[in-house]
């Protein structure tokens, strides 16, 4: 049985999604694998759609794992939620064909970066947003987002996750397709700005570096022309630093209809 | 100088707003008084509009304190935010006439109780909402809210804060005026239900007991007639238990215009 789960987590206390080769602290993947082994008595590898960094959250991560345990997907959900730490939950479950793979079958991932743009800090928003007290020209950030759309080399904002994988020798390319990119103010909550991105796949650190550079555009410290040049040159040295991880959340992963994965 | 501050806090790790007679853990009032004393060198008593219970949050608490320090309200805000723990912040400050009192000058308080009404738990909502996986008839809860409106004895849902005050011998009455009460689903976030209440003042534990009883109405375990009888009898023994504190937030305190307190 190939079980697919929608996973939500508060990444604050985790060293990212992916289990580490050596023990470098708890990971989301490790916590889910531990719970599965406690339920079925057998270790099953968990595959995630997005390998989120340390401190990054998810409301719509998707995982799959294979198990021979004779449990329905509903029982799996209830059992996992009973055993998982409070910071990780299974939001939905379904069975998928054997060939379904949470990472390789995915056609797009969507990330949301949340900015708290008021002078005073907000303790109730602090856990899931990045506090930027300076004035931000969100319309200009939105214009810059248009320059990110389409299929191009995003080397300016990250590196290929395969670069650090000894089993995947180069060349590693940084070409990805940005399907949607926008910066908007939340109309119902003063002070909240969202930067939303959907792409076929993302480079390591890509959203946080895009946001860091867009913030310079929003502060008028970088013109739209300069932003366009940074994107076009696709070089790793550029003025934008990466925005911190706690503002970032993996919100959605899309799959072809044929797999019947209903989120 | 009588300084008024709008205070936001994450109440998770505090033993309520009010400083305890004996040391029973950290309080919001105590943390603010400590920060003020570090800035001015003198202890000033902090008076809060609402004495929130342990674990209850606030986005719109209002406090005042008197100080002879020659600092502008803007400098006070910056200094306090630099010294306060990350879980407490000063959202705004202003000067008020000497006679202004955060508690006694207030004409109304507004509380919001947030319910997470999905089958699966949500780690990203868990800190600020109460997870109720059962189906809830929110329209019926909204109908019950109409029975709470107006000036009446709310003894069914709490006791007077003065009952435990040895300096305030009885009789203690439980008559309050409910100006607004409603239960609504958040139109932008599936699964979120808000119970919003505005009254001239609230009894200790009142909002949490009202919500606990309204949840029974929403589950059709209590009819509207039975709810009306509970309200009318104003007795302390009734079927609704108090909803837990972490779903509750003090969102707003109103003052007469004459004080010039701009929030």
Largest sheet of chain A: 10 strands, mixed
- Oligomeric state of shown chains: homodimer
Tally of helical segments of chain A: 5
Order of helices and strands of chain A, N to C?
EHEEHEEEHEEEHHE
Number of strands of chain A: 10
The CATH superfamily name of the largest domain in chain A is Pseudouridine synthase I, catalytic domain, C-terminal subdomain
Q: On the 0-100 scale, what is the average pLDDT of chain A? A: 93
Q: Give the low-pLDDT segments of chain A.
A: none
Distance between the termini of chain A: 18 Å
CATH architecture of the largest domain in chain A: 2-Layer Sandwich
Assigned CATH class of the largest domain in chain A: Alpha Beta
Examine the coordinates and then state which fold CATH places here, giving the name of the CATH topology of the largest domain in chain A.
Alpha-Beta Plaits
The number of domains of chain A is 2
């Amino acid at each position: 049985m190939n079980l697919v789960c929608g996973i939500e987590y508060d990444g604050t206390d985790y060293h990212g999604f992916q289990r580490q080769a050596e023990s470098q602290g708890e990971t989301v993947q490790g916590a889910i694998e531990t719970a599965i082994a406690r339920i079925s008595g057998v270790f099953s590898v968990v595959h995630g759609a997005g390998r989120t960094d340390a401190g990054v959250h998810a409301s719509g991560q998707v995982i799959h794992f294979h198990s021979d345990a004779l449990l329905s997907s509903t029982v799996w959900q209830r059992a996992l939620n009973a055993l998982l730490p409070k910071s990780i939950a299974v939001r939905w479950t379904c069975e998928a064909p054997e060939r379904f793979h949470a990472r390789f079958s995915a056609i797009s991932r969507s990330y949301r970066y949340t900015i708290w743009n008021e002078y005073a800090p907000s303790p109730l928003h602090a856990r899931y947003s990045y506090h930027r007290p300076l004035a931000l020209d969100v319309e200009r950030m939105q214009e810059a987002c248009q320059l990110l759309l389409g299929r191009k080399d995003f080397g300016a904002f990250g590196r290929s996750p395969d670069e650090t994988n000894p089993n995947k020798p180069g060349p590693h390319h940084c070409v990805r397709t940005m399907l949607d990119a926008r910066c908007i103010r939340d109309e119902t909550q003063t002070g909240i700005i969202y930067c939303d991105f959907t792409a076929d796949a993302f480079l390591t650190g890509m959203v946080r570096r895009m946001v860091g550079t867009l913030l310079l555009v929003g502060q008028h410290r970088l013109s739209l022309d300069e932003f366009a040049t940074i994107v076009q040159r696709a070089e790793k040295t550029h003025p934008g630093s990466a925005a911190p991880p706690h503002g970032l959340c993996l919100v959605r992963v899309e799959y072809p209809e044929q797999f019947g994965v209903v989120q």
